[in-house]
Amino acid sequence: MEVIYQPVWSYCSSDSCSPSHRCQTGFTEKGYRCVAKDSAGENDNTTECPSSWNPFEGSCYKLYTEGKDWITSKAFCENNDAQLVKIESAEENDFIKSQYLTGNVVYWIGLTDAENEGTWKWSDGSALTGYINWHFNEPNDMGGEDCVQIVLGTHSKIYNAGWNDATCSISLGFICEK
């Protein structure tokens, strides 16, 4: 798989990559990357991932179950050349659910409104646009909740890989993406 990294101040736009590549944002100090598409023009699904990471649509994912607060989880992912997971489609959310969500579980994802209440951004600084999967009555900022978790189980009502805003200091497992 061919990958071309761009500087951190660069973000994806309609002309970021050549037509034979697709743009992915949020790769820490490397900015965005252009990932080669296969000969049919589809995303390359033959992603080579490090051992214990799972591939999906050109990215690699890993679950860490040891509890950390959101800020520490974000830093941990960045120190491993990754980011807290940025979920951009129903297919990606379903992949996360099928790979990591079993039983009653809650993990950090890379979404926060800590800078400006109600303005949700991914940990790479990009705005939340397009796909969303908030659980019923979320986000609600109950008690100053500025970070987002993905939830499966019966914590009050049935959560089906829905997103919930939570207090950033809670110690949870987390999912990194690179």
Automatic annotation (TrEMBL):
Gene: SVEP1_10
Pfam families the UniProt entry points to: Lectin_C
Protein name: Sushi, von Willebrand factor type A, EGF and pentraxin
Domain (C-type lectin): residue spans on this chain: 56-177
Gene Ontology molecular function: carbohydrate binding
UniProt keyword annotations, A-Z: Lectin
InterPro entries: C-type_lectin-like (IPR001304), C-type_lectin-like/link_sf (IPR016186), C-type_lectin/snaclec_domain (IPR050111), CD209-like_CTLD (IPR033989), CTDL_fold (IPR016187)
Record SMART domains: CLECT (SM00034)
Lineage per the UniProt record: Eukaryota, Metazoa, Cnidaria, Anthozoa, Hexacorallia
PROSITE patterns: C_TYPE_LECTIN_2
